[in-house]
Amino acid sequence: MPKKKRNETPEEQSARFRAEAERLIEAGELSPTEAEVALDRLVQRSSLTPKVAP
Q1: Where on the phi/psi map is residue 28: left (φ > 0), alpha (ψ -120 to 50), or beta?
Q2: Contact present, 40 and 54 (Cβ < 8 Å)
Q3: What is the reported pLDDT for 43?
Q4: What is the DSSP letter of 52?
Q5: How far is it, in rounded angstroms, from Cα 50 to Cα 39?
Q6: DSSP state string for 8-49
Q7: Residue 54 per-residue DSSP state
Q8: What's the rounded Cα separation, in Å, for the pair 10 and 14?
Q9: Is the pTM here over 0.85, yes or no?
């Protein structure tokens, strides 16, 4: 059975993302510089993607 989706506020999502990124950086699995570049690309792409109304 699939997991139930968690309803999180944007602030909770952001905090969870940051905590996971920090964990990966400390474990040596993620370069802070590469993470910054990847995040910039994602944000840039999302701003170019047309929004679809529900």
Answers
A1: left
A2: no
A3: 78
A4: -
A5: 19
A6: --HHHHHHHHHHHHHHHHHTTSS-HHHHHHHHHHHHHHHHHS
A7: -
A8: 6
A9: no
Which residue type sits at 33?
A: T
pLDDT at 49: 61
Distance from the Cα of residue 21 to its chain's centroid:
9
Q: In Å, how far from its chain's centre is CA 48?
A: 17
Digit-coded pLDDT (tens) for 13-30: 888 888 888 898 889 888
Tally the C-alpha atoms within 13 A of residue 2's C-alpha that lie toward its C-beta.
Answer: 3
The amino acid at residue 54 is P
pLDDT band (50, 70, 90) for residue 50: low
The pLDDT score that the predictor gives to residue 34 is 83
Contact 25, 32 (CB under 8 A): yes
